[in-house]
Write a structure and sequence with these properties.
With about 60 residues, this protein is α+β, with helices and mostly antiparallel strands. It contains 1 helix and 2 strands, in the order E-E-H. The chain has a domain of about 25 residues. The protein is about 15% helix and about 15% strand. The chain has a two-stranded antiparallel ribbon with strand order 1-2. The relative contact order is 0.09.
């Protein structure tokens, strides 16, 4: 019978890489009460905005 590899780590291989580190304090959320939040996140980079505009469809075109 074929042997099965058993890993003790439940994370995928790319998630347990020591080279990948997330910056602290990029995303912030503040709760004001009654379902109201103030969320701070980084802006999209210019290159991503440009590609989204070039490859994206015109708003409402598929309706």
């Amino acid at each position: 019978m074929a042997e099965q590899k058993q890993t003790t780590n439940s994370k995928p291989a790319h998630a347990s890489s020591p080279n990948l580190k997330q910056k602290e304090g990029i995303y912030q959320a503040e709760y004001f009460g009654s379902g109201t939040f103030h969320i701070v996140k980084p802006k999209r980079k210019d290159g991503k905005r440009r590609q989204s505009a070039l490859k994206g469809t015109t708003r409402g075109a598929r309706k």
